Amino acid sequence: MVSVLLLEDDSLLSESLEIFLERENYSVDVASTQEEAEELSYKKRYDVYLFDINLSDGNGLDLLEALRHAEDYTPTIFITALHDMNSLAKGFDLGAIDYIKKPFNPQELLIRLNAKFKNAIVRYKNIEYDESAGILRKDGELIQIGNIQFNIFVKLLLNQGLVVDKSELYEVLEHPSDNSLRVALSKIKQRLEIEIKNIRGKGYLLEKI
Hints:
Blueprint: E1 3-7, H1 11-23, E2 27-31, H2 34-43, E3 48-52, E4 54-55, E5 58-59, H3 60-69, E6 76-80, H4 85-93, E7 98-101, H5 106-117, E8 121-124, E9 127-130, E10 135-138, E11 141-143, H6 147-157, E12 163-165, H7 166-170, H8 178-192, E13 197-199, E14 203-205
Parallel strand pairs: 1-2, 1-3, 3-6, 6-7
Antiparallel strand pairs: 4-5, 8-9, 9-10, 10-11, 12-14, 13-14
Helix pairs in contact: 6-8
C-alpha cells in the first residue's frame, strides 16, 4: 500500500482527500501545519508527500527545502492555488515531481498518483523495492548492493513464489557460471538477511509471504 503524507491546512479539503484516497487503498496521514508535517516525516517513511504551498504557519516549499537538506528525497506533489511560475519553478528545482492546482477534482489527483506510484512499491518482509526510483530500502533505510546482486534480487522479487530458472539469472552475470551465480546469491542473502531456496535442477525461489 502506498503511504501518503498530506499537508493541507484546509480541514474540509484534507478530510475529503483522506477519505477518498483511503477508499482507493492509499494509506494517508494528515498534517495541518508545517511543523506537524515535519515531525511526521521524521517518525515515518512515506512513499509520497502531498504538500500545499500556502500554509497558515509557513510554506510547503520551505518545508520541502528543509527536508531535502536533511537528505529526505521522498517524491513530492504540490497542491497550490498559486499562479506564480517562480514558486512552481522553485518546487521543481527542489525535486517536486508534479503539482495540481486548486480547485481540482480528486479523481485527477488519483490519476496522477496511480500513474506514478500504484504498484511501484514491491515489498518482501522488511525490504521495499521502489520500481520508479530503482532503489531498495530495508527497514525504511536506503540499502546499497552491487548491480549484479541488485538485478538478481529484483528478478526474484518480482517473481515471488515462482521458481526462476537459473538461465534467466545468468543473463545479468558478467561471466555466467554456476559458481558466480552462487557467489552473487550468497552476497544477497548476507546483505539482505533473507533466504533464497535452491530448487535442485530447476532454479531459485524467493518464497511468497
